[in-house]
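Re-run with default settings, no changes from the original entry. Doing this only to confirm the output is reproducible before filing.
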Amino acid sequence: MAIDLDFLNPTYKPALLALSAEDVITACKDVLRELNYKVLAASSHDDFTTRFNNIQFQVVVIDEDFGARAADGNATLRTLQRTSMNQRRHANIILLGHSFITLNAFQAFCQSVHAVVNWADLGSLSQVVQQVVADNTIFLNVYREAQLRIGSGKG
């Protein structure tokens, strides 16, 4: 797969979708574009892995059934769960599924993602993305400031 070099622009806010249904892909693309994200959609697990490893995405939206019949068989989700935190830290990972309670912190923690969203709440994805990104920015602000201080020798 060739990497889209037009995508690599410092002003872009990249987002990656790993969704199974075309209508959901379209709806999520519309929401994320409205929030000024540059959206790419992965067509398979291998495509997702290649894109995720080559571009630092700000938002990643995954369907619990992406490329699988059940969440246990979702190779993309399992790969993300096993990826080191320093690689996942900059991406806000949102998992869509039927069994989740939207924004339930415990369910998100158990899935090693930032947020979970029930399919019934897909209409409020814009608010969810904004809240998750804002919460993550606040949470990691102290960490990033400490990194800067240590890097500049003021630690």
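Residues 10-151 form a domain with the Rossmann fold fold (CATH 3.40.50.2300). Helices lie at 22-34, 45-54, 75-82, 85-88, 105-111, 125-151.
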